[in-house]
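Appendix B, record 7
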Amino acid sequence: MNANTDFTGAPLPPDESNSANSTTTQNSPTTALFPTGSRRERPGILALTIGFGLIAVCLIGLFTSPSAAIGGAWCIGMMLVLLFLSVPVAIALSVPSIIGVYAVSGIPATMNILSTAPFSAVSDWSMSVLPMFIFMGMLLTQSGLSGKVYRVADHWFSWLPGGIGIGTTFAGAGLSAVTGSTIGMTYALGRAGIPEMLKAGYDKRMAVGTIMVSGMTGNLIPPSILMVVYAGIASVPVGPALMAGAVPGILLAVCFAAFIFAIGVAAPKLVGRGQNAQNTTDTADTPSSTRPTTTWRDRHTSLTAVWGFAVILVVLFGGMFSGLFTPTEAGAAAALCSLLLCLWEKRGEQPWRKVADSAMDTVAATSAIFFIMIGATMLTSLLAITGLAPILTGLITDLGLSRIGFLLVLIVLYIVMGMFFDTMSMMLLTIPILLPTLETMGVSPLWFGVFVVLLGEFAMVTPPVGIIPYIVHSIAKNPEVNLGHTVTLRDIFIFLLWFLPVAVVFLILMVAVPGMTEWLPDLIQRTSGGMSG
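Structure tokens (predicted):
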């Protein structure tokens, strides 16, 4: 599982650039909420041989280790090997944990974990909001929301320098927040946004770069599936965890939009403005690719197409702010509104079939997430039984790092891990180990959740092996997307180097001003009287 929300196991949409009969499929946005895939090919014979050899070494080291802590370290090594072999995360976490507990404490402790971990990991009432959010995202995707939200953002921001890119940034933040999938949003928005920006005369690097960063904020803005999962792992209230990411997520989207605006002012040719702006790309635009002028009537008309989305936002956030709903109840109410919206939008197109498909996909995605959380619970038990967690905490403390130094080390660590693992994998591997250290370093668990999710999203676009650039490159190979322009990986990486400093500065700002994550939860706590459930 090597995509940001690789819960269903569905493959990435195929590269249709060389398909003779792909015309019909290319014009329709993706309907899969979690299109996924691996940033690596399936392991070959040599990789499997080396991998199984390393697993054998870990097993021998585990059963011959002189202490429980060293045995726990061998189990961590086994987990990493399994993850590098593209073994599903749930299995990579749980199997070494079970073997480690058996090696250290015998059959009774193993049976105890097997009988209690599955229930304790997912039985918390606050976790019931997870299927509600996933179901809501599935239904909104089925109802064709992605295209409508993009058109609204496009119409209302296109008059600004870099306006189409700004609209794409805000549309991406909204769509990835609602669907819970940066990967799925990137695919859907890339198919719609890249050709629109190229038609407007955008430099091809600007077009693909905007798509790559447009979804970085989505898993911070509620409803965020990753923040719910973090709340379950870290045992923090779901409501405050959801709200903690809202302000940083919105601010980061604004920072990216301001950067695009600045580029539009400083170098108008890159965003299709100024003299000879249309000639900045590889080939001249054809008359058929000329972008129509947007009128105020178009802007107001586009808003009517997303009235249902506005209702859902009012129900979700208004219910929590007013204290009428707990986060769990707000998720259920928003899912009900999404169900009614899907039935209305798809009336006459077998709407109940789309609802049924959404329900089945929700069951599959929720089950996969719960299996992963069970694996994380088993890892936590292993760390406790072997005594590895306090040893690691002591080692980190003994380094004498300040809070700032500790967080800077984590930034480097997560960026390196992001070259190989998805955000969920990084969270599950590191949070059980780091949580005991947070209190010692004076780091709020609520703030840390936002920090970890943002680092994971940042790592997903970091060259040379972040998965998002390769997905965008695959999309840009499609002739109906690139409009005859040649988009290379070099183009993608060059423009990423323009955008990534914005994210780095924002990370530093988060470290310097941690209060930005706690302001909104505190405000809701004061106005509604609490939102723990």
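Remarks on this record: Confidence is low (pLDDT under 50) at residues 1-40, 275-289. The radius of gyration is 23 Å.
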